[in-house]
Amino acid sequence: MCDSGMKQLSDSLLIQSYHKAIELNLSDEFIEQIKREINSRSIQHLLDKHISHVG
């Protein structure tokens, strides 16, 4: 998925995608693309929130 495709994802789906990419051990480059999009949206706080709901 390219950066422009990630812009179509909701915040929630983007966060879920980030965690799933890590779980599936996808490429570091792909995970970094997701992180960049999370940072550009300033939704890093949702990463912690998602972890507390999952864990």
In short:
About 75% of the residues lie in helices and about 0% in strands.
Explain the layout of strands and helices.
Blueprint: H1 3-6, H2 11-23, H3 28-41, H4 45-54
Identify the notable features of this structure and list them briefly:
4 helices; 55 residues; Helix Hairpins; globular; mainly alpha
Element pattern in H and E: HHHH
Radius of gyration computed on alpha carbons = 10 Å
CATH class reads: Mainly Alpha
User: What is the CATH topology classification name?
Assistant: Helix Hairpins
What is the residue-mean pLDDT, rounded to a whole number? 87
Low-confidence stretches: none
Protein architecture, described:
With 55 residues, the chain is mostly helical. The chain has one domain (3-54): Sporulation inhibitor A (Helix Hairpins, Orthogonal Bundle). Helix content is 75%, strand content 0%. It is built from 4 helices and no strands. The mean pLDDT is 87.
